[in-house]
Write a structure and sequence with these properties.
By secondary structure, the chain is mainly alpha-helical. The chain contains 7 helices and no strands.
Length: about 170
C-alpha cells in the first residue's frame, strides 16, 4: 500500500496560504491582542486592541523575513519542548520520590547556561546567520582571530595553574 507522503498528498495545513500567511498572522494577532488586553496600554476598549493587533499582524505577514524567523523559532520550540519533556520524564524516573528531588544550585546554573547557549545557537540558526558565522570562523581573518583567541585562552589557563601552584607553596 502506498504511503501518503510518497503519493504527494498534502494536508490543508501545508498549503502556502495557511502555513505562510494565516498561521503566522493568527499567532502575532493573538499575542499582540493578549498583551494589549493585559497591559491596557491603549485603554479599556477591546475594539481598539483588536484593530491594533490586526494591523500589526498584517504588517508582520507582509514582510517575508520576520515570518521565516518566527517559523524557524517555532520549529525549534516544538522540538525543544519534546526534548525537555523526555529529559524531565527520565529525570523523574531516576530522581523521583515522595518528597521530590531538589537539584543543587550548581545544577540549576548548569542547566540554565545550557539552555541559554541552546537559545543563542537557535537564534543564530533561525536568522540564517549560521553559515556566515561558520565561514567567518573557518577562514580568512575570522580563522586567524579564532586561532589567536584559543591560543590566548590556553596561555591564560596555563598561567593561572602555574600561579595557583606558586601561591599554594607559601
Amino acid at each position: 500500500m502506498a504511503n501518503e507522503t510518497t503519493t504527494g498528498v498534502i494536508t490543508f495545513l501545508q498549503y502556502d496560504v495557511i502555513s505562510k500567511f494565516l498561521l503566522p498572522f493568527l499567532l502575532v494577532f493573538f499575542v499582540v491582542f493578549a498583551i494589549l488586553e493585559k497591559t491596557k496600554l491603549l485603554g479599556e476598549k477591546k475594539q481598539i486592541h483588536a484593530l491594533t493587533a490586526f494591523v500589526v499582524g498584517l504588517i508582520f505577514v507582509g514582510a517575508i523575513y520576520p515570518v521565516l524567523v518566527v517559523n524557524n523559532l517555532i520549529l525549534f520550540l516544538t522540538v525543544t519542548l519534546v526534548a525537555v519533556f523526555v529529559v524531565l520524564l527520565i529525570w523523574g524516573f531516576i530522581f523521583g520520590d515522595e518528597k521530590g528531588f531538589k537539584p543543587a544550585n550548581w545544577m540549576k546554573w548548569g542547566l540554565g547556561i545550557i539552555v541559554a547557549i541552546a537559545f543563542v545557537v537557535a537564534l543564530i540558526w533561525a536568522t540564517g546567520l549560521w553559515d556566515n558565522l561558520q565561514n567567518f570562523l573557518s577562514g580568512g581573518i575570522g580563522g586567524t582571530i579564532l586561532t589567536n583567541a584559543i591560543f590566548l585562552i590556553v596561555i591564560a589557563i596555563a598561567l593561572a595553574l602555574v600561579l595557583k601552584g606558586v601561591g599554594e607553596k607559601k
